[in-house]
Amino acid sequence: QVTLRESGPALVKPTQTLTLTCTFSGFSLSTSGMCVSWIRQPPGKALEWLARIDWDDDKYYSTSLKTRLTISKDTSKNQVVLTMTNMDPVDTATYYCARTLRDSSGYYLDYWGQGTLVTVSS
Amino acid sequence: SSELTQDPAVSVALGQTVRITCQGDSLRSYYASWYQQKPGQAPVLVIYGKNNRPSGIPDRFSGSSSGNTASLTITGAQAEDEADYYCNSRDSSGNHHYVFGTGTKVTVL
């Protein structure tokens, strides 16, 4: 079955770089149409789409955060890594990764990890 | 700020029908997908494409679209449908960037 798990630091200091890893099983990111997305949710607030990496290594970023984000994949390890630079307390959120499928109707996130809470504080 | 706008909250009597809407320019060209999120849990995909339900999603959930508005309808709402609902689609730039809607809290009375 498909599973995804986010891992990374629970606490980062302002101005530091956050590195999160999504480790998945049950699918291959080298299969056509397979993608992985990152999404975050500040406490009590709405979901925010951050980035996506596609099977062909195309990468897409949130327009408002693209200067701070980098997404990459290691297909052999079944991992996707997201880095976010210059962290600020407003970046405190639960960060999710999700398997994303592309078909003729577009992209949709069909399996999600349980999320990891990242707090930005000095 | 999100380019997909949803009503902050709606309520529905048990067993009745509720429609949740999502408005945005990109919806004139692209489908929305819909996600249900209960407190303390990860979101769950409930509708994608024109009107497709993943395996395990009850058929009381349906999707539709007209103009710049996508809708999620729950026909015969159950107590377990009380949750936050988010739409997701491409942003209005026409590229492959995606955005989530502002979210709708559904209360089942």
Architecture overview:
The complex is a heterodimer of chains A (122) and B (109). Chain A is an all-beta fold. Chain A contains no helices and 11 strands. Chain A has strands at residues 3-7, 11-12, 18-25, 34-41, 48-54, 59-61, 69-74, 79-84, 93-103, 106-112, 116-120. In chain A, the strands form 2 sheets. In chain A, strands 2, 4, 5, 6, 9, 10 and 11 form a 7-stranded mixed beta sheet that branches. In chain A, a hairpin with a 4-residue loop joins β7 and β8 (79-84). Chain A is globular. In chain A, 37% of the residues are buried. Chain B is mostly beta strands and 109 residues long. Chain B has no helices and 10 strands. Chain B has strands spanning 5-6, 9-12, 17-23, 33-37, 44-47, 61-66, 69-75, 83-90, 98-100, 104-108. In chain B, strands 2, 4, 5, 8, 9 and 10 form a 6-stranded mixed beta sheet that branches. In chain B, β6 and β7 form a beta hairpin. The mean pLDDT of chain B is 94.
Q: Ends of chain A: how far apart?
A: 40 Å
Helical stretch tally of chain A: 0
How does the major sheet of chain A shape up?
7 strands, mixed
Q: Structural class given helices, strands, pairing of chain A?
A: mainly beta
Quaternary arrangement of the chains shown?
heterodimer
Got a strand count of chain B?
10
Evaluate the radius of gyration of chain A.
14 Å
* Most strands sheet of chain B: 6 strands, mixed
Order of helices and strands of chain B: EEEEEEEEEE
- The poorly predicted ranges of chain A are none
